[in-house]
Design goal:
179 residues; alpha+beta; three-stranded antiparallel beta sheet; 4 helices
Amino acid sequence: MGRRITVRFSSTEAGTNRSDDSEGTRIWVDPVTDMAMILGGPSPALLLPLALLAACLVLASGEPCVEPNFIFQRKHVDYPKTDAPDANDYCNKMMLLRGLYGKAVNTFIHEPVSNINSICKDGGTPIIYGLYESKDEFNTTQCIFEPDTLSISYKGVEKKRKIIIGCWNGYPVYYLEQL
């Protein structure tokens, strides 16, 4: 029917009954279901709520949104631009280096972080829901995933254009891809 669980330590828990067997081991039994209870160790499911709580406390404290901004920079900022023979080679190299290989579209911005951050303040125009369009044009390389029958690679397109980013607490955390 069920597996018998034995516990070799003593503890008193509210709402549980204990029974001793001939070997001196204790079994904790749920009084409602009359089934043995498993005493578990640490639960990974509890880590997510704790991490979210910590993030909420940081955001509520008014501190800058460091982690999402760091992720934004890893995915989208390459200044000064990494050398490559052409835009296609650049995209294949950077998508691998940044751990983004297989992503359908990604854009790298080749401008100083301070210029990009300014879009969230006075260097950008609010659009909607935390999105800002830059007032100035930025040098970018857009990498578009193009699997074909012979190879799986990226096509790189270099453009100078206005960019749209999502801001949180005055820092960029999201890049809106424009095709």
